């Protein structure tokens, strides 16, 4: 067994690997960039090595630095986690050439599944069903257009080296094909240095079904059943669950057997995922489920598989990498209950899901469920990396119970002051279509604004805040319906008699509101929490609102609703289009902020006059800095 392991990753997945390694008696080495010097994974590991500046291209993506860190600390093996270098065959080979153990598949297996066209050809040879399409070497516009016409519209153009939703374009009509092809190739070239594409028939009611597979060096390959990752936004997974709703045993057996054939076709070792797309227009049927690609690494959503099988996949990875056989036979694996995972991110749904990096001042995640996180209170969510705060995972007897438990967990959790997608996750889970398993990969897009949380608290939420303040009063007499002392949360409010009726003036998001201490609602979905500095957090349908008893005398935060133009994230001002005193109209561009390698135009919320202009071209700004004000026209 490996005795010392270097983890070539950061954040949540690094902490996840450290936990299992510690339980197995394996010591761990973390690597970190400048931005991660005080990160949780660094604090948790037995040792840590600095590998460079904050940008990933200068630290986590520099294989030589990581291998040198392993040599320096005497680590025997390197675990890549997911992302970064996890599917880089060249890095895997370099690790092996350095005399170290690579906790992952053989480099040849990574290469075999790295290009979508070659992988599909291999799958066809292995008897794995693939989506009808074109995989030819002739990449001329004329040939591709001819093949698309033959397949029939809509068709999907995919970069052969693509991933993460990049290099993909749906084409609905022949007239749009050439423009879509040019756009797809341009993005593929920039992202993957490869502009070759393949064509696939567009599936009209697509479900994303994937199968967890595991192989060892003794020729054994097993599957650990399927996951459903159909709830997606712009090809990025939002909610994942296992098993897949609507999957009957016969279809499960066929698709899982196909996944095992796929893994055996590339002599696979370690953890991997075979991803399929299903035409669910008539339910899940084996003859309408097609191979998409293989992810030759541990997946972000692996906890739901662990929850239904009772298997620790990271432990299996370490054992198999050490030369041991897979711990269980196929007939020893079974499905137990239902698991659902939601990815909680520091991002603002109201602003196009822009990342919301910064310091976490307050963090309470429901500890009654499984939480996978790489941050604690006081930690930074860095602008340099993926803004994940946590994965929230529930396991229950059946799907309805799992949905209910995750909804409750979202309402018993809060993050402050960063913007998060917590309310968005709640609304996704609360969809009637999701509850009824009537879902496909376009569900979120079709629902659109209906999934965005209300920007203002309801009166029930305001009253909950008032009741919470009233409970801190030593003269309070009443009965708490439900309380969790560990989380310091009061669920569903208080029962007060008429003689104790009181209204309290509250301050929320720059506005004054009035709450009634006796106006209680025994409702599912409202949780009130009081912080040490006397601020109330009320979570309603996953959306967290902040209240205090200060008046609107300037002590509160400015908000866009008041005409304040706030920086949505840390960045650089690259253009200022207005001057102090200028008259502007609603929607007019005021300035441009460059952040996360993207440009963000900031516009006037309504007609008015520019005042308090503090931004200047070339200046650096922090998240929620007030850049200027727009005073409304009287």
Describe the structure.
- The structure is a single chain.
- This protein is α+β, with helices and mostly antiparallel strands and 634 residues long.
- It is 25% helix and 32% strand.
- Strand 1, helix 1 and strand 2 form a beta-alpha-beta unit.
- Helix 4 packs antiparallel against helix 5 and helix 12 runs antiparallel to helix 13.
- The longest helix is centred in the middle third of the chain and has 17 residues.
- It is globular and about 75 Å long.
- About 7% of the residues have low confidence.
Quick structural summary:
This protein is of the alpha+beta class and about 625 residues long.
The average pLDDT score comes to: 86
- Strand content bin: 25-35%
Strand order of the largest sheet: 14-13-10-11-12-15-22-20
The low-pLDDT segments are: 472-501, 550-561
Number of domains: 6
Q: What is the CATH fold-level name of the largest domain?
A: D-amino Acid Aminotransferase, Chain A, domain 1
Individual helix count? 16
CATH architectural label of the largest domain = 2-Layer Sandwich
Descriptive labels:
D-amino Acid Aminotransferase, Chain A, domain 1, Dna Ligase, domain 1, alpha+beta, 8-stranded antiparallel beta sheet, 32% strand, 5-stranded parallel beta sheet, 634 residues, Rossmann fold
Question: How does the SSE layout of this entry go?
Answer:
Blueprint: E1 4-7, H1 11-23, E2 27-33, H2 40-44, E3 47-52, H3 63-73, E4 77-79, H4 89-97, E5 101-102, H5 107-114, H6 116-125, E6 133-134, H7 141-151, E7 155-163, E8 166-171, H8 177-192, E9 197-201, E10 206-215, E11 221-233, E12 236-242, H9 249-265, E13 270-279, E14 289-295, H10 302-309, H11 313-321, E15 338-345, E16 347-348, E17 354-355, E18 358-359, E19 362-364, E20 370-373, E21 380-381, E22 388-396, H12 399-411, E23 414-416, H13 422-430, H14 432-435, H15 443-447, H16 459-471, E24 479-484, E25 489-495, E26 503-508, E27 511-516, E28 526-530, E29 536-540, E30 543-547, E31 564-566, E32 571-576, E33 583-584, E34 589-595, E35 598-603, E36 608-611, E37 620-621, E38 626-632
Parallel strand pairs: 1-2, 1-4, 2-3, 4-5
Antiparallel strand pairs: 6-9, 7-8, 7-9, 10-11, 10-13, 11-12, 12-15, 13-14, 15-22, 16-17, 18-21, 19-23, 20-22, 24-25, 25-28, 26-27, 28-29, 29-30, 31-38, 32-34, 32-37, 33-36, 34-35, 36-38
Helix pairs in contact: 4-5, 12-13
């Amino acid at each position: 067994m490996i005795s010392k392991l270097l983890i070539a990753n950061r954040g949540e997945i690094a902490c996840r690997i450290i936990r299992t390694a510690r339980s197995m008696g394996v010591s761990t080495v973390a690597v970190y960039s400048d931005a991660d010097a005080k990160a949780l994974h660094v604090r948790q590991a037995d040792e840590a090595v600095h590998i460079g500046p904050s940008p990933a291209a200068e630290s986590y993506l520099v294989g030589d630095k990581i291998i040198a860190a392993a040599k320096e600390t005497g680590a025997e093996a390197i675990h890549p986690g997911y992302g970064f270098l996890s599917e880089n065959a060249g890095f895997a080979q370099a690790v092996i050439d350095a005399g170290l153990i690579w906790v992952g598949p053989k480099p040849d297996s990574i290469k075999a599944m790295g290009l979508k066209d070659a992988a599909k050809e291999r799958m066809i040879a292995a008897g794995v069903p693939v989506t009808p399409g074109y995989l030819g070497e002739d990449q001329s516009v004329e040939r591709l257009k001819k093949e698309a016409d033959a397949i029939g519209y809509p068709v999907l153009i995919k970069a052969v080296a693509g991933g993460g939703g990049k290099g993909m374009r749906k084409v609905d009509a022949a007239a749009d094909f050439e423009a879509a092809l040019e756009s797809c190739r341009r993005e593929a070239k920039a992202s993957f240095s490869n502009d070759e594409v393949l064509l696939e028939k567009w599936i009209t009611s697509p479900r994303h079904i994937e199968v967890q597979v595991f192989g060892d060096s003794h020729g054994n390959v097993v599957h650990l059943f399927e996951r459903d990752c159909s709830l997606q936004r712009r090809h990025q997974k939002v909610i994942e669950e296992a098993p897949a709703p609507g999957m009957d045993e016969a279809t499960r057996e066929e698709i899982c057997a196909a996944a095992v054939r796929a893994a055996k076709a590339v002599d696979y070792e370690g953890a991997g995922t075979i991803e399929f797309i299903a035409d669910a227009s008539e339910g899940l049927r084996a003859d309408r489920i097609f191979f998409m690609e293989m992810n030759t690494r541990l997946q972000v959503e692996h906890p739901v598989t662990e929850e239904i099988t009772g298997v620790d996949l990271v432990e299996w990875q370490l054992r198999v990498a050490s030369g041991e056989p897979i711990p269980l036979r196929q007939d020893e694996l079974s499905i137990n209950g239902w698991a659902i995972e939601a990815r909680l991110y520091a991002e603002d749904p109201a602003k196009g899901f822009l990342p919301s990096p910064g310091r976490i001042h307050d963090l309470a995640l429901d500890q009654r469920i499984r939480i996978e996180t790489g941050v604690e209170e006081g930690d930074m969510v860095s602008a340099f990396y993926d803004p994940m705060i946590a994965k929230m995972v529930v396991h229950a007897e059946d799907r309805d119970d799992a949905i209910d438990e995750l909804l409750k967990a979202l309402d018993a959790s809060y993050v402050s002051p960063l913007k998060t997608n917590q309310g968005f996750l709640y609304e996704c889970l609360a969809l009637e279509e999701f509850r009824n398993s009537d879902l496909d990969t376009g569900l979120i897009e079709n629902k659109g604004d209906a999934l965005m949380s209300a920007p203002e608290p309801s009166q029930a939420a305001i009253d909950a805040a008032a009741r919470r303040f009233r409970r801190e009063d030593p003269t309070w007499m009443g009965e708490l319906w439900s309380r969790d002392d560990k989380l310091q949360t009061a669920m569903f409010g208080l029962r007060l008699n008429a003689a104790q009726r009181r209204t309290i003036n509250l301050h929320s998001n720059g506005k004054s509101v009035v709450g009634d201490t006796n106006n209680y609602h025994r409702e599912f979905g409202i949780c009130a929490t009081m912080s040490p500095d006397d601020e109330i957090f009320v979570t309603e349908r996953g959306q967290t609102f902040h209240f205090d008893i200060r008046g609107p005398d300037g002590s509160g935060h400015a908000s866009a609703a008041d005409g304040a133009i706030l920086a949505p994230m840390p960045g650089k001002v690259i253009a200022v289009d207005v001057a102090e005193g200028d008259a502007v109209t609603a929607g007019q561009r005021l300035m441009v902020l460059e952040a996360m390698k993207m440009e963000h135009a900031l516009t006037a919320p309504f007609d008015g006059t520019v005042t308090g202009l503090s931004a200047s071209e070339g200046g650096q700004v922090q998240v929620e800095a007030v850049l200027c004000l727009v005073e409304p026209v009287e």
